[in-house]
Design brief:
mainly alpha, 5 helices, 5% strand
């Protein structure tokens, strides 16, 4: 499954990352260089002031309890997609219950381990 998944850096495509044309060209260039079977994860930050994260519009996404967990929720949902080769998340069709705190803590710990590993 990992070979099927590609990532596009949210810092390169989010609202404060240059012009719309530049961001569009970056995404188009990245997609043109890939296999048509590949799934891309591209978190998007629309900037401050937005009331709900854009990722909540995807089918099967867990309901986020407030606006402060969005980064962890996006990372956890991407992790769930990668770990589910059957792609069952696509079939859920409606918003799911919030992640339990333990699920968010797993992502926080994995992220902290990754950062520590690359700081050494």
């Amino acid at each position: 499954m990992c070979s099927m998944v590609g990532f596009i850096d949210p810092a390169a495509v989010s609202a404060n990352a240059g012009s719309l044309t530049d961001r569009s060209q970056l995404v188009a260039g990245r997609l043109q260089k890939t296999d048509s079977e590949q799934i891309f994860m591209m978190p998007y930050n629309s900037g401050p002031g937005r009331k709900a994260p854009i990722w909540k519009t995807l089918p099967g996404t867990p309901k986020q309890p407030s606006s402060v967990e969005c980064g962890y929720y996006v990372m956890r949902f991407m992790r769930d997609i990668i770990m589910d080769p059957s792609l069952e998340f696509e079939k859920k069709g409606k918003e799911q219950a919030p992640y339990p705190q333990e699920a968010i803590d797993v992502v926080r710990n994995e992220w902290a381990e990754f950062v520590c590993l690359h700081m050494e």
